[in-house]
Amino acid sequence: MDCRSDEELYQLVQESRVHTIEGMVPDYIPALAKADLSSLSVAMAFPDGSCYSAGDIETKSTLQSISKVLALALALLDNGEEYVFQRVGMEPTGDPFNSIIKLETIAPHKPLNPMINAGALAVSSMIKGDSVEERLGRLIQLTELIIGEEGIGYNEEVAQSELETADLNRSMAYYLKQHCVIEEEVDAVIELYTKQCAIEMNCVDLAKVGLLLAMDGKHPATGEMILPPRVASICKTFMVTCGMYNASGEFAIRVGVPAKSGVSGGIMASVPQRCGIGIFGPALDDRGNSVAGWDLMEKMSKKYDLSMF
Amino acid sequence: MDCRSDEELYQLVQESRVHTIEGMVPDYIPALAKADLSSLSVAMAFPDGSCYSAGDIETKSTLQSISKVLALALALLDNGEEYVFQRVGMEPTGDPFNSIIKLETIAPHKPLNPMINAGALAVSSMIKGDSVEERLGRLIQLTELIIGEEGIGYNEEVAQSELETADLNRSMAYYLKQHCVIEEEVDAVIELYTKQCAIEMNCVDLAKVGLLLAMDGKHPATGEMILPPRVASICKTFMVTCGMYNASGEFAIRVGVPAKSGVSGGIMASVPQRCGIGIFGPALDDRGNSVAGWDLMEKMSKKYDLSMF
Amino acid sequence: MDCRSDEELYQLVQESRVHTIEGMVPDYIPALAKADLSSLSVAMAFPDGSCYSAGDIETKSTLQSISKVLALALALLDNGEEYVFQRVGMEPTGDPFNSIIKLETIAPHKPLNPMINAGALAVSSMIKGDSVEERLGRLIQLTELIIGEEGIGYNEEVAQSELETADLNRSMAYYLKQHCVIEEEVDAVIELYTKQCAIEMNCVDLAKVGLLLAMDGKHPATGEMILPPRVASICKTFMVTCGMYNASGEFAIRVGVPAKSGVSGGIMASVPQRCGIGIFGPALDDRGNSVAGWDLMEKMSKKYDLSMF
Amino acid sequence: MDCRSDEELYQLVQESRVHTIEGMVPDYIPALAKADLSSLSVAMAFPDGSCYSAGDIETKSTLQSISKVLALALALLDNGEEYVFQRVGMEPTGDPFNSIIKLETIAPHKPLNPMINAGALAVSSMIKGDSVEERLGRLIQLTELIIGEEGIGYNEEVAQSELETADLNRSMAYYLKQHCVIEEEVDAVIELYTKQCAIEMNCVDLAKVGLLLAMDGKHPATGEMILPPRVASICKTFMVTCGMYNASGEFAIRVGVPAKSGVSGGIMASVPQRCGIGIFGPALDDRGNSVAGWDLMEKMSKKYDLSMF
């Protein structure tokens, strides 16, 4: 796609890039440990089809937790709002994304929200299809529809690497199975979830996903309604209340834009009616968010007055 | 003030009022237990000075937790953002408003956010003044400036009643004192907090507070900047992420508007750039929100397309 | 074996049996739900070879959590004290036996003690052998040595039933695997643990296990040292501090004897230097202990002055 | 009193004293921070009136948490078992002594046991008397009866120092007051508890308290029943299950003797029917127990075969 290099964005990227040295890659996913810590790329996609970028926009990265938003959208399409929220809550939590505590302390034993791992596992288990392949295929298809291009795939090496280190997710999935939130085989949902996390794209595509949500589910070029407005609205709401791990509250205060991050260093943001933003910067802060990406979002929010609040 | 009875609002109120029978008044505050459970009133205030209402708009109620927003605004004015957030966090929590657990489990030992009781106590302790009277007076003064009218006071009977049943708040305050989040005498901050909760007004005034936040702190009639835009923005953000107790996430999904509730059955909402809403309906659901007020907000959000998301 | 019916014990059993109506069988293990709720049997085995009993002493029941003591003994024999306690703690906990919370909140992430499920899974994973069969066989062999008779086996129906409902244990095992407390395949340790829980015997055999621990590991008839005194001592200590689920503290106060219970309604007690006691009474109280068995232990403790304290 | 210096004990003390360098004094009680970190003293008192000691047995130290045992004995005398345990539980906990979490998570909201601070506050509030002075006086009187000598007092400087830093205890007391476990004024119970913690004696007196519990409440010299056997039994049971903070389970495994420690570095132990032990060694480990005192208890337990298990 055509996405123009932009001098102003480049300046911001240069300023934010200095923060990459404060970050680290997660050591629990070996395949992510190879990422170039100093890299930082950004794209902004607008409803009129224009796109501005800075940094290396060719490199693809995996979505990791950003995929939770797409999976939620598909699960809502497949099952409807009522079914989904009988199994997953809507509340943000002060606990880390991989905490299991609330599953035990809160009754009924359902995950607090779809953006923590426990909730995302429950959501993935609701994606319909006869096999893991088919269900993953449907998620990829939806992603391609949203982006408006084919050719989206997942990184097998990363998926394999995560599958081998997914014991904490397996622990949560069995906990959820015990309480009937997950009904299928744990191995299946773990495989689906792990592969979904390994879906990869560049920051331009990521910005386009953000743009579609910003436009209430309508494709800006074709005018086609890819997602019902209600589904897009739900996704954006969770991005505000729980999108940035247990720093979501602070991000809302400091940036004020619906956004979802992943441990690959990705951030996808949706500025309602205005634009989508995609960022990849693999160096993470201690809460799992791209350290330079966060800084860049703060700078962009101030410069372009992006905050909803 | 002039606030016109509105037929459309009246219809919505009639529909929502049926839910009052599902609610209860909190038994731990004797003075609140006398409220008329079936009552429900609402006002919408607009930037052009117009105001529409339904229900008994003359009755005054106490603000309770809604006062946390005003206290936060004043603490930010008094101390600046940095000072305040060194002592209080920005993260929503899945725990109840009066939970003490996170104070122990999260390091450093500061309250998760200014909208739970622990955080609100910390915030009140930052309001400047030589005495509790002076500090409370300053908060009332700010409230009067925001509303644009004098004559705001607090309900002494309710304050006295809550002071006598404030042991859980005292427990939290001493916990915070132990960890140097609160530095003054616990008795002083408990008195200030309890009296601030007992500030009373009618739903029209409440709507006007919401309106000022919706207008980024600028008084719609005079154009005067009562609160800096940044302070108004911070308040609205917390109203989205933590304004409705541990149902804030669900309210964001179902209503999508910055709002703060109190156990007196009040809800104050701010629809950015559009209007402020004030509601009083004393019958509460099990999470402490006005049960009919919540329903009314859902209906208004759908009818007038109020959601930010 | 020869175990004489005793009139005095029979009287106590009759008195305690009335409490069976207050109890329930656990609904999460279908095969246990068939137990005769009103049954209660007891045996006391003494160092001189004498044995007194009351109730139906022919019926065999599964050990369930009582097997945790035998597994701990074997794991200590196999690995030594230091190795075992690097992986499992020694502290009692106020949490239920199947709680997962402390695994997350306490660092390092090891189970608090070998008597809660998380700790027992870790202990079972330390039992040596080339296959689950061999490891289970070694545990059964040790049990036969302790009892002094062959013919101990496990109940396949119960094992199968529990294997199908073991998702919470699987959840814990994966959590422990994530933190390297368990190193083998989760399926293997779950199979071993589930089969170990299904080892079955009658209350006379159970009393003999208690007797051997009471005699510091020395077989009272042959004088053979079946367990090192230190291993017997460790087992008895855990039976005091954590043997009766999260009612262990109360049992110590009310009965004062090292004892371990199981959800099959079994209680095995060791009165140092004096006797072993075996009880089966399937009706459970809300903390998982035999309701009539507990009452019987209180009565026996008072009548025979059994308390250590 | 006559307590002979013993060469064998002296050797053990010398060996254990090296561990004092691993310890620290608690920084939250300024008056305790002045203690001589390298000091270590011990006394063993026997039923025949003989007494053996090593180290500086003249120095008096405050009891701190050891006073919880004496207060529990008096509360049981004043109110009976049933009354006391309606307000305080019997279960050990894996949480630190000053944790407030379980008060919120466990229903009904009563402290888990009388040896954690929350439980000890509840216990002290049950000591009868018309004033704090009278109630403290009654506790001191009981202590003098147990020791068989007059002249016991409390250290006013330490009491004052702790009163000024007791905010966490105040926090717990208000929490308990909210839930009606404590009924009196918080200030009163805090004053009583703080002064009771400051009761001071030397290690010989401490050994005599341990001896009386070891002898089931009967004074070994006079034969007088100072405490009912049941009260002595309850005290010793809690000393096993919860006496050494959240290292009680490990102490039971490694030493196997009922014991209670305090942050002044004191340890009081009761070996049933055999002897009482008093130790003061102010350097503490990270769980609040005398680091050299613990080591000395391990050595004495092995050398004199003191374990009950």
From TrEMBL, chains A, B, C, D:
Q: Which GO terms describe its molecular function?
A: glutaminase activity
Q: What is its EC number?
A: 3.5.1.2
UniProt KW ATP-binding keyword: no
Q: Which GO terms describe its biological process?
A: glutamate biosynthetic process; L-glutamine catabolic process
One Pfam match, given by its short name, reads: Glutaminase
Catalysed reactions listed for this entry: L-glutamine + H2O = L-glutamate + NH4(+)
Which residues span the membrane?
Answer: none
Q: Which UniProt keywords apply?
A: Acetylation, Hydrolase
Matching InterPro entries, A to Z?
Answer: Beta-lactam/transpept-like, Glutaminase
Quaternary structure note = Homotetramer.
Q: What family is reported?
A: Belongs to the glutaminase family.
Q: What is this protein called?
A: Glutaminase
Q: Which species does this protein come from?
A: Bhargavaea cecembensis DSE10
